[in-house]
Amino acid sequence: MMRKIAFFDLDGTLCSGGDLHVSLEIKQAFQSMRENEIEPVIATGRSFYEVQHLLTFLEVEKLHSV
Questions:
Q1: Which domain holds residue 43?
Q2: Tens place of pLDDT for every residue, the chain, 66 residues?
Q3: How many angstroms separate the CA atoms of 11 and 2, rounded?
Q4: What is the count of structural domains for the chain?
Q5: Which of 22, 39, 56, 66 has a 20 to 30 A CA-CA distance from 28?
């Protein structure tokens, strides 16, 4: 089975204005992707501690670091 994954950057893509806040519409879009078997993934250079609250808000459950 092939998995579908959508990657997103934070700064300037999901988050604008220099802060780490996203709109309710972004959260709803992430939920819609999961309902359609698409795994939303956040790719960022920021540390986990900087984005932890955002991952919780967006219900991003898995964390992979390299």
A1: 4-57
A2: 888 999 999 888 898 877 899 999 999 999 999 999 999 999 888 888 999 999 999 998 765 554
A3: 29
A4: 1
A5: 66
